[in-house]
Description:
Helices cover 39% and strands 20% of the residues. It has helices at residues 37-53, 93-113, 117-134, 141-162, 168-175, 223-236, and strands at residues 2-5, 8-11, 22-26, 29-33, 73-75, 78-83, 86-91, 176-179, 182-190, 193-196. Helix 2 (93-113) runs antiparallel to helix 3.
Amino acid sequence: MRHTSKGDVTWITKRGRPTWVNLIRYADDFIITGCSRELLENEVKPMVRDFLAQRGLMLSEEKTTITHIAKGFDFLGFNLRKYGAKLLITPSKKGVKRLLEKVRGIIKGGRGRGEAGYMLIQRVNPILRGWANYYRHVVSKKIFAKIDSNVWECLWRWAKSRHPNKGMGWIKRRYFTRKGNRDWVFHDTNAGKKHVLFHMSSVPIVRHVKTRQNANPFDPQWRKYFEERRQKKTADTPRNIQRVIVPGVASAMPS
């Protein structure tokens, strides 16, 4: 049943219980929650379709799906799934697959073009670093380790293919070094400069802290709150993705 109050549309069940209809939007992607499949299919979806039609837009049937949170779903490259009472957000399997396909393509392509190891590192590192920074706020540690392992295997095969007449010991000494507590770290040197493969597992997982509901970045009484939040976020953010922050203006750093 739908009721209109102050111009807003709300849903309640026949027994007067809330239906948990909520909207989460990012640009033109959005999620709508509800207490049942029937509610979303028969009431919410037609309403959204009509709302978009009035503005000359269409709901993509290919991208639109109705599923239970216990089965999970993908959104903006993340997979959201509830296990009992715990909600886990992880990188989506499709996202991991695309990343590995891209990195493998670079390494295999480099083998065909005869690229040196440092060239591969220069091409692969920005991709791995950017991907890790994007997913560093969710449950990603095991997936980071899995990706590191896959990339290492690709580079090991590349090294053996590049030097088919050399033994494993020679290849290890030539392309792999020790860095801190980690051994077998891929590296190469060019013009006296050492290039080291980025290790995704080295990125710390830092949970994103939501902004307080009533906080307003344009209200002077909240200036101290946003300044403290900005300082903490800057301290937790890797230098390679920090942005110039203008005093008195809300931070525009990646979340």
